[in-house]
Design goal:
Elements (H helix, E strand, L loop, with lengths): L9 H13 L2 H8 L3 H15 L4 E4 L2 E4 L1 H27 L5 E8 L6 H11 L3 E8 L1 H10 L4 E4 L8 E15 L20 E5 L4 H12 L6 E5 L2 H9 L4 E5 H10 L3 E2 L7 E10 L6 H12 L1 H17 L2
Length: about 325
């Protein structure tokens, strides 16, 4: 190992990460509560130790060099190992402390805070960093090893992933109470062929599940409106644009208030499972391991939590 690399400090790496994140010396200085000259000095010293420039300007935009990209990956690994060490030391002292980095698909974003609150009730010193995004981006985050655990449905089969299902994700049809299908009983899915149907965009897990199911049932939608999130689909239904095929958790508050009704289709709900996922062979932190044990072993508690979330909505369906 180069002796110069041993002179790098954790503070220098923190400043470096801040510049990479903000792509600006001035914004990094503000985030780190430093002056801009102090940030520039830390980066210069780091470049001397690395033996290569870390940033270059093209026009007015700051770009990472190849050396910076390598250093960023190494620094992320260093701080991850320190976080893990902190958690392990806390565990040895009889407590669990640290941060859980969690990414979830948008369909479970409404329930996730309740899951985290139940977990934190057991481990009060645990904190969370939560990212909500679409399925394609969650898969990319898994590949980039950016999170401890990912919560999603329809786990890709062509990746080296460890996962287990922990909770059902019911997909239902909702509309305004004045919709022509509202109040009718035992509807056939074929009724949707003559209606405007609101769906997620291609690439969404919910969209894939619905499309595969309708194809299996030989139902061919004629009028589809695409939306970029479950929330926008629900509001589309509220606006009277059509029938939304959406996860029940997204619609629950509006079913509870009576602003939407659940349509009585004989072949719905469509059940899919949410899964806890991480890369195969990933070194899990004590907090991540505890969270996975919680999801795996407390399924009765999780089902009760989910039922409480949905129960008022069901009484209005």
């Amino acid at each position: 190992m180069r002796k110069s690399l041993l002179r790098m400090t954790l503070r220098q790496l923190q400043v470096f990460q801040a510049v990479c994140s903000s792509q600006s010396y001035s914004r990094a200085a503000e985030d780190m509560a430093l002056t801009q000259p102090a940030v520039s000095q830390q980066i210069r010293q780091l470049e001397e130790q690395v033996g290569a420039p870390l940033f270059e300007y093209v026009g007015k935009k700051l770009y990472l060099t190849e050396a910076a990209t390598s250093l960023l990956a190494a620094s992320a690994d260093i701080f991850s190992r320190l976080d893990s060490l902190d958690m392990q030391l806390s565990s040895l002292q009889g407590s669990l402390r640290g941060e859980l980095r969690l990414a979830v698909v948008s369909s479970i974003q409404y329930l996730t805070p309740h899951l985290l609150a139940a977990f934190q009730a057991r481990y009060p010193e645990v904190s969370f960093r939560l990212e909500v995004t679409r399925r394609s981006q969650v898969i990319q985050r898994l590949q980039d090893n950016r999170d401890d655990v990912v919560l999603m449905a329809l786990v890709p089969e062509d990746r080296a992933l460890e996962f287990f299902p922990f909770l059902n994700n019911p997909i239902i049809a909702v509309a305004r109470s004045d919709h022509p299908l509202a109040g009718r009983q035992a509807l056939a899915l074929a009724e949707l062929e003559q209606r405007v149907v609101l769906e997620r965009e291609p690439g969404s897990g919910t969209r894939k599940a619905v499309d595969d199911y309708l194809q299996h049932k030989r139902v061919h939608l004629q009028q589809v409106m695409q939306f970029g999130s479950s929330e926008s689909m629900v509001h589309g239904a509220l606006a009277g644009l059509g029938v939304a095929l959406v996860t029940e958790y997204a619609a629950a508050p509006f079913l509870r208030s009576g602003e939407l009704v659940r349509l009585d289709f004989s072949d719905l709900p469509l059940y899919r499972s949410w899964c806890a996922v991480h890369a195969r062979g990933k070194r899990l932190s004590p907090v991540a391991e505890a969270f996975l044990v919680f999801l795996r072993e407390q399924r009765t508690e999780l089902k009760a939590l989910a039922a409480n979330f949905l129960e008022p909505a069901k009484s209005n369906s």
